[in-house]
Amino acid sequence: MSQNHLKDTRANLTRRGFLIAGAVTTGGLLVGCGAPTPQERLGKPADLPVQGDQVALNAWVKVSPDGTVTVAVPRAEMGQGVMTSLPMLLAEELDARWEDVRVEPAPVAQVYANEAMMLNALPFGVDDHGWLARTAAAVMQRTGRILHLQVTGGSSSIRDAWLPLRVVGATARAMLVQAAAQRWQVPVAECRTEAGQVVHTATGRKLGYGEVAADAAKLTPPSDVPLKSPDQFKLIGQAAPRKDIPGKVDGSAQFGVDVRVPGMLYAVPVQAPVFGADVASFDAAEALRMRGVKQVVQIPHAVVVVADSWWRAKQAAAQVKVSWTATPHDQTSSADIARQADEALAQNSGTSFTNRGDADQVLKDAEAAAKAGAKPGDKAGGNKQTVLQARYHAPYLAHAAMEPINCTAQVKDGAVTVWASTQSASLAKWRASQIAGVDSDRVTLHLPLLGGGFGRRLEVDMVEQAVAVAMQVGGQPVKLLWTREDDTRHDLYRPAAWADFRAVLDAQGQAIAWHNRVAAQSPTYGATKRLLPWAAADSPDKNQIEGAFDLPYDIPHLAVRQVRLQGHVPVGYWRSVGHSYNAFFVESFADELAHAAGQDPVAWRRARLGQHPRHLAVLERAAKEAGWGQALPAGRARGVALQEAFGSICAQVAEVSVQGDQVRVHRVVCAIDCGHTVNPDTIEAQVQGSIVFGLSAALFGEVTLAQGRVEQSSFPDYPMVKLAHMPRIDVHILRNAHAPGGVGEPGVPPVAPAVANALFALTGQRLRALPLRLKAA
Amino acid sequence: MHQFQLNGQPVQVDVEDDMPLLWVLRDELGHTGTKFGCGIAACGACTVHLNGGAVRSCVVPISAVAGQSVQTIESKSDAILARLQAAWVQHQVPQCGYCQSGMLMAATALLRENARPTDADIDAAMTNICRCGTYQRVRAAIHTAAGAALNAKGAA
């Protein structure tokens, strides 16, 4: 290792150490540093409520006398197939018969905390296996447990459950075997399991799991059960039909919005149009005269109409006259926010996240030379370097899940019942208890399906509102449901972001220095100050700059810095978070550098991925499957993009044409390396869906502000990709035995830059802002 | 009082003339399979059949339904819907599933009119929004269901 490399490594370690220490000590946490073992996740049978004659073997699995195996899933099903994939892990090691496996939502208890979620706060990639990465991961896992983050997000469910749920299944299996062996009076070693039965190999005697479960439950769980090797997997890695799909084709699936409780009232809020404004006064006289209206109540930032039907409440809400308090943002527009970003980028050098080589000095020298009049290739000028500059932008975005925001709550006799389609079960319960002023054990939380989450349902604002209303309606249950317009205008938005790039090219046009500053509000600060206010600090935020600081390309001098903006627009986690804009910035600018070097964009990337063989394999696979380099029909072109996100690596090749200023995406070929494959059909579905999600943002997505408020309201002015826009999508999964990565989000980031790069190849227009808007030819 | 046929059964509701069919189905009659997505006929989550044709129930006032026949995702007696539902399971179409009632009802109306739709026919008829992006599988499942119908006819 060279002296310079050593120095760089130390600089990086110091930087990372600071970030990690900051993250962990936030809120004064003191946690142990040893990596949590999967065995610690087993839990106790008492954690899991049983019905009828079910027997719980631990906190995760119950067995009925008829052999039915019921698995408790503590993650929210929002279409990502978690109600199937987590049970697959457990059933694999249990040797359960898949047909016997049922699923149910787990209760809220610390044993179900998501210990992988907070790994997303750490600045380490899939190729980082050093002691610091491992130690920090262990601290984050313990922190997730201590905070009891029973949450679903960050593409973390499989990453969290991969070992623990297999250990849980194997441990339960060992107990069932031991119980059968004792009944037969034979050594455990003479027994095996298959398809939900214990078999005594020598005699062929069999006992179903249901027949021995009660005995097994009395045994002490063994602490050192072996796990299957991948070549022994029967379920893991095979496409399994999802358990939640039958109910989603006949209308029987129950989403939050479908909750019906006897005596239930319906509530529609009239919310402050400018973020942060509150109710100054209101006149509900006319609304109260309307049919079915029961009450009009005030809660923070809103007046709420309560009626005997949602439609009646909505009609009456339109008649409520509210005057709102003034805020400093009553005149703020998108142009003002852009100007603030410009100013911040002009004045603020930013917080360093990556510092390799000496990008600042190389840039300074090149800029000084350029000022002195040297031109590229101008030997007389003594400097053959050029500087390439670019400013990129991505707008605020709304989540726009199909199920509008809602929550049902009842507050009666000091007890609170909440029905919420939420990604944040534990936080929903905690906030409900806080709002109602009762102990957490007086809160019962029901968890229906989610009609889309995408990060929006990590927030618990709907729970806070519903409980605040329920406290004022005399003990009756009340379903609070927003209009689509409110869903669009009262989101916690994907931050608007700007990237300021400067690259130094040598005489051959090769990039020797890459300088990038990313300006945006911190999504982590935004979400944390709402969800865990005592832990909130506007400190360096990996999520704001993820996908930018971790550039995989081998460029000698690299500096990536974060400029954190302030703003009145509430921001939060939007599917793929910082990657959603940074991939567009970074992969578009990389494309600019490839073209500046006169190199093919795949070849440019390939030449710089020597340190990242997994990234290279993904890139090569996508290029091969897309027929990169092969001729296309006239009027079409391809573009490529690559991004590691959430522990997985994804490359996409988009094929486009244009008609006037209209972009048509014909095909997207995607390769993904997400480590071990659990349910390949779900992976394909998630990646297909991610590409559509990313494409809606690339082609249409934009939330703008005028007079402090969001201008968009519903699908006509916040459009989505529909069937008629659909490209053919091909997904290729690289099968390997690496630790599982996430699947719900990594497919989103590459599509916008892949399409933008294809449009450049086709038209010569370099589009540096989202959504992509071509100038008509 | 408004009377109409719901999935072959007579029903009656005492609501305002302008209450949309969507809210009659969901809140008055408890048929929650039909979903609310936007309230302005822009997303298709609330698609049901009125006399066999697809309508967006969030903008159909109950007064316009009087005496007529309404079919929802809860219907058990529509052979085309049943074929599509089987194809939906075969292709593992739904993700979150929220839009799928509307998708299925739109697809059922499409196949009733056009037993073997082309991709262009599907693009034109299926304007429902799916935020999870299940469109590619929606298309494949419609083709499968259409093919199954033709094969069944051929065998008969």
Reading off the top of the CATH hierarchy, the class of the largest domain in chain A is best stated as Alpha Beta
- The CATH topology of the largest domain in chain B comes to DNA polymerase, domain 1
Strand order of the largest sheet of chain A: 10-11-8-18-15-16-17
Query: In angstroms, what is the radius of gyration of chain B?
Result: 15 Å
Q: Unreliable segments of chain B (pLDDT under 50, ≥5 consecutive)?
A: none
Largest sheet of chain A: 7 strands, mixed
What can you tell me about this protein's structure?
The complex is a heterodimer of chains A (777) and B (156). The longest helix of chain A is centred in the N-terminal third of the chain and has 23 residues, at 3-25. In chain A, the strands form seven sheets. In chain A, strands 10-11-8-18-15-16-17 form a seven-stranded mixed sheet. Chain A has 777 residues and is α+β, with helices and mostly antiparallel strands. In chain A, α1 packs parallel to α3 (131-146) and α5 (164-184) packs across α6 (209-217). Residues 1-19 and 24-30 of chain A have low confidence and may be disordered. The two termini of chain A are 52 Å apart. Helices cover 31% and strands 21% of the residues of chain A. In chain A, a hairpin with a 5-residue loop joins β2 (61-63) and β3. Chain A has three domains: 38-114 and 150-227, 2-Layer Sandwich (Aldehyde Oxidoreductase, domain 4), CATH 3.30.365.10; 256-327 and 405-481, Aldehyde Oxidoreductase, domain 4 (2-Layer Sandwich); 337-395 and 493-763, Aldehyde oxidase/xanthine dehydrogenase, molybdopterin binding domain (Aldehyde Oxidoreductase, domain 4, 2-Layer Sandwich), CATH 3.30.365.10. By secondary structure, chain B is of the alpha+beta class. Chain B folds into two domains: 2-71, Beta-grasp domain (Ubiquitin-like (UB roll), Roll); 79-155, DNA polymerase, domain 1. Helix content of chain B is 40%, strand content 13%. Chain B contains five helices and five strands. Chain B has helices spanning 21-28, 79-90, 100-113, 119-125, 135-155; strands at 2-6, 9-13, 47-50, 53-56, 69-71. The longest helix of chain B is centred in the C-terminal third of the chain and has 21 residues, at 135-155. The mean pLDDT of chain B is 95.
